[in-house]
């Protein structure tokens, strides 16, 4: 899938070279994690702490923690960073929002995170909460931009119904929104009435580029997204998190392996191949998760291969996976409740209509048509906030 790379300069690299006059000499906080590195794998934390142009005063970590070692959903405690001596404020532990004490004495909060371009990913929710808190505190919000790894062209899925807003869906955007994290910050500010963030844009990134075409080294954005193929499929196969079926967590191919103990692999593969879904192929297989659902139990299922990422439609794939696996599972299939009640699938899809459609056994084709229409509307809505053409 590789093509000729075009060297892309990240917002971090531009910031280190050019600086920002508005925060020169100021005390700043840094929201980052293991993805905050330059192309020589030097940490954003250490690079900014060594900079003579700013005073790095505190670190802020999202889900998975500052070093990216915590599993999904695991609370992370605040601490003192052993390497730098700086306080680490966890935004996925006792609180998920910045407090006035965390922002005290800061002129700016700088964000350097590699997002994945999918609405479910919680880095966007953490960023949105931080933007709002900075707006109330009069602290400048700065984003060091990074690529959308699955391109800035492909938009897929329905827009979130605000009635189903949650930490896996914080704003009315499609599941696959085609924005960089800097562009998302601009859209959030514009549509929620917050001060516009100061975005340090990349140099050389084009909307049609996939991550492996940028020349930027890949650092997995979370413990269960080790590869670009996993990120490409995530917007569809993540929907299985709303069910008692395995999405491959606890294996070496999360979000590429799907199944359950009662699934017959050749039967599932045949049903999915019959659909002739573009850009993907299916191999019948068995796998045994070491943790998460069905831990230490052999599961039958398929491995999903991305054969043409330009034509693949992961959200469409996700709907057909739910439809097919539900039919093959019979009474063994169940939806999973969310932490605050209701059904988790409704929070992922941002509405309860898809669940009702699947429960009724109604074909999902009309949903896909409606989503395509919503994506076209969103494409126009996002236009004022784009930084790259």
Walk me through the structure.
With 389 residues, the protein is an alpha/beta fold. The protein is built from eleven helices and ten strands. Helix 4 crosses helix 5 (181-192) and helix 6 (228-237) crosses helix 8. The two termini are 23 Å apart.
What's the helix and strand layout?
Blueprint: H1 11-18, E1 27-32, H2 44-50, E2 55-61, E3 79-80, E4 87-90, H3 100-103, E5 108-112, H4 122-137, E6 140-144, H5 181-192, E7 198-200, H6 228-237, E8 257-260, H7 265-274, E9 280-287, E10 299-306, H8 314-329, H9 344-349, H10 353-359, H11 365-381
Parallel strand pairs: 1-2, 1-5, 2-4, 5-6, 6-7
Antiparallel strand pairs: 3-4, 8-10, 9-10
Helix pairs in contact: 4-5, 6-8
Which of globular, elongated, flat, extended, rod-shaped describes the shape? globular
CATH topology of the largest domain: Rossmann fold
Give the count of structural domains. Answer: 2
Which oligomerization state do the chains in this entry correspond to? single chain
Number-wise, the strands total 10
Distance from first to last alpha carbon: 23 Å
- Label the structural class: alpha/beta
How do the SSEs run, as a string of H and E? HEHEEEHEHEHEHEHEEHHHH
Helix fraction?
Answer: 25-40%
CATH architecture of the largest domain: 3-Layer(aba) Sandwich
Averaged pLDDT: 95
What is the C-alpha radius of gyration, as a whole number of Å?
21 Å
CATH class of the largest domain: Alpha Beta
Q: Provide the CATH superfamily of the largest domain.
A: Uncharacterised protein PF07075, DUF1343
Major beta sheet, strand line-up: 3-4-2-1-5-6-7
Instruction: List low-pLDDT spans.
Output: none
- β content, as a range? 5-15%
| Sheet having the most strands | 7 strands, mixed
Total count of helical runs of at least 4 residues: 11
């Amino acid at each position: 899938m590789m093509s000729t790379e075009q060297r892309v300069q990240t917002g971090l690299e531009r910031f280190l070279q050019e600086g920002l006059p508005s925060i020169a000499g100021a005390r700043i906080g840094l929201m980052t994690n293991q993805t905050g590195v330059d192309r020589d794998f030097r940490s954003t934390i250490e690079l900014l702490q060594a900079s003579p142009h700013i005073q790095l005063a505190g670190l802020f970590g999202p889900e998975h923690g500052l070093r990216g070692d915590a599993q999904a959903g695991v609370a992370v405690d605040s601490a003192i960073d052993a390497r730098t001596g700086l306080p680490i404020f966890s935004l996925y532990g006792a609180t998920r929002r910045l407090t006035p004490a965390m922002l005290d004495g800061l002129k700016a909060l700088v964000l350097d995170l590699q997002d994945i371009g999918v609405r479910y990913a919680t880095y966007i929710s953490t960023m949105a909460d931080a933007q709002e808190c900075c707006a109330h505190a009069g602290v400048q919000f700065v984003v060091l931009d990074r690529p959308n790894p699955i391109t800035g062209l492909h938009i897929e899925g329905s827009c979130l119904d605000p009635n189903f807003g949650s930490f896996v869906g914080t704003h009315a955007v499609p599941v696959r929104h085609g924005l960089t994290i800097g562009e998302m910050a601009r859209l959030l500010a514009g549509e929620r009435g917050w001060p516009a963030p100061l975005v340090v844009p990349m140099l050389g990134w084009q909307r049609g580029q996939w991550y492996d075409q940028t020349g930027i080294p890949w650092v997995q954005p979370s413990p269960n997204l080790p590869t670009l193929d996993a990120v490409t499929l995530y917007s569809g196969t993540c929907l299985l998190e709303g069910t008692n079926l395995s999405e491959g967590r606890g294996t070496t191919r999360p979000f590429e392996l799907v199944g359950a103990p009662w699934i017959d692999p050749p039967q599932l593969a045949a049903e999915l191949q019959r659909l002739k879904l573009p850009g993907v192929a299916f191999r019948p297989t068995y796998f045994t998760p070491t943790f998460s659902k069905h831990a230490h139990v052999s599961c039958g299922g398929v491995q999903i291969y991305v054969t043409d990422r330009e034509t693949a439609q992961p959200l469409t794939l996700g709907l057909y996976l739910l439809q097919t696996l539900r039919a093959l599972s019979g009474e063994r299939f169940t939806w999973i409740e969310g932490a605050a009640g209701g059904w988790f699938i409704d929070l992922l899809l941002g509405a309860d209509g898809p669940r009702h459609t699947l429960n009724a056994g109604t074909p999902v084709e009309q949903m896909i048509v409606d989503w395509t229409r919503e994506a076209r509307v969103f494409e126009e809505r996002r236009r004022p906030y784009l930084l790259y053409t």
